């Protein structure tokens, strides 16, 4: 869904209208479900670098600020996302907890960790996603799903699977009335400078741009209307510099990922949700 326009209030005396006012935030409690993307990897809090912030925390902060500005109570927010989780474990571990929290807004974004595996059954994980969205919508909550990213370079082989998954996401949204965060369609994210060193997680600026895209998907005005404007062109990198960066990426990120696959371990093993219960946001 695209952003709605700001409204104006006509002057009863027939004078000039008031300045535009932002659409009100109707949600009072938001729960984020998902994996490392919603946990916010590579966007640490400046005052707590061991805790990741990310787009969902940023979105919660914006929604809460708008509620407060309108004279409403701050938004309550929980984030159950844990890095490394595939879609069906996300649903198995987080869905009941989410429903029990009684939110009126839920983001459920996942599937990327499944798609990176050759054995991924796109239709099966899409079916599990739809069942979860139907369950959430039955509670009266609004749901925000997300498409997969359009990858480049070494990960471009995933684009066929991501495209099939995205088509299913849009179909689920049509059937259930859910919102869709269109990550595939974000032009700015085609720039490697908005991606962290591991090339599968965003930088702080990337997360902030996605938070604005989420506002747009929810039918609200983004804080930054230029959130999807591409960065200025970068000077071409020398071959030696590119080769060195690729080698470092393989050594520091691809190698450990492969080892985890071979040993059946996950980066999220032993981790718990960073914000497991709804609390007023921003946190004290």
Topology:
Layout: E1 29-34, H1 36-39, E2 44-45, E3 48-52, H2 54-69, E4 76-79, H3 87-101, E5 105-109, H4 112-115, H5 122-138, E6 142-146, H6 159-176, E7 179-181, H7 204-217, H8 239-263, E8 275-280
Helix pairs in contact: 2-7, 3-5, 5-6
What is the top-level CATH class?
Alpha Beta
Strands of the widest sheet, in order across it, are 7-6-5-1-4-8
Q: What can be said about the biggest beta sheet?
A: 6 strands, mixed
Task: Summarize the helix and strand pattern as letters.
Answer: EHEEHEHEHHEHEHHE
**Structural category:** alpha/beta
Count of alpha/pi helices: 8
| Amount of beta strand | 5-15%
CATH T-level topology: Rossmann fold
In whole angstroms, the N-to-C terminal distance is 33 Å
The CATH superfamily turns out to be SGNH hydrolase
Question: In the residues, how many domains can be counted?
Answer: 1
Indicate the mean pLDDT: 89
CATH architecture name: 3-Layer(aba) Sandwich
- The backbone outline, from C-alpha atoms, is globular
- The percent of residues in helical segments reads 25-40%
Supply Rg: 20 Å
Would you identify the regions where 5 or more consecutive residues have pLDDT less than 50? 1-21
């Amino acid at each position: 869904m695209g952003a709605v326009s700001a409204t104006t209030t006509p002057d009863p005396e027939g004078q000039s209208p008031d300045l535009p006012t932002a659409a009100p935030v109707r949600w009072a409690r938001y729960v984020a479900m998902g994996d490392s993307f919603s946990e916010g990897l590579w966007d640490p809090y400046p005052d707590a670098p061991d805790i990741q912030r990310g787009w969902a925390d940023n979105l919660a902060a914006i929604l809460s600020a708008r509620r407060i500005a309108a004279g409403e109570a701050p938004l309550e927010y929980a984030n159950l996302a844990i890095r490394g989780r595939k879609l069906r474990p996300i649903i198995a571990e987080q869905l009941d907890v989410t429903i029990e929290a009684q939110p009126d807004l839920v983001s459920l974004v996942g599937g990327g960790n499944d798609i990176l595996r050759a054995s991924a059954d796109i239709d099966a994980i899409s079916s599990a996603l739809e069942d979860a969205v139907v369950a959430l919508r039955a509670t009266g909550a609004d749901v925000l799903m997300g498409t997969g990213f359009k990858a480049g370079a070494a990960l471009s082989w995933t684009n066929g699977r991501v495209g099939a998954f995205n088509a299913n996401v849009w179909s689920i949204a049509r059937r259930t009335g859910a919102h869709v965060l269109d990550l595939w369609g974000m032009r700015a994210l085609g720039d490697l400078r908005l991606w962290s060193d591991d090339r599968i997680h965003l930088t702080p600026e990337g997360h902030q741009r996605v938070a604005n895209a989420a506002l747009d998907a929810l039918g609200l005005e983004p804080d930054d209307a230029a959130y999807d404007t591409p960065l200025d062109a970068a000077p071409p990198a020398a071959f030696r510099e590119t080769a060195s960066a690729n080698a470092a990426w393989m050594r520091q990120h691809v190698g450990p990922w492969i080892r985890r696959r071979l040993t059946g371990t996950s980066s999220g093993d032993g981790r718990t949700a960073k914000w497991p219960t709804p609390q007023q946001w921003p946190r004290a």
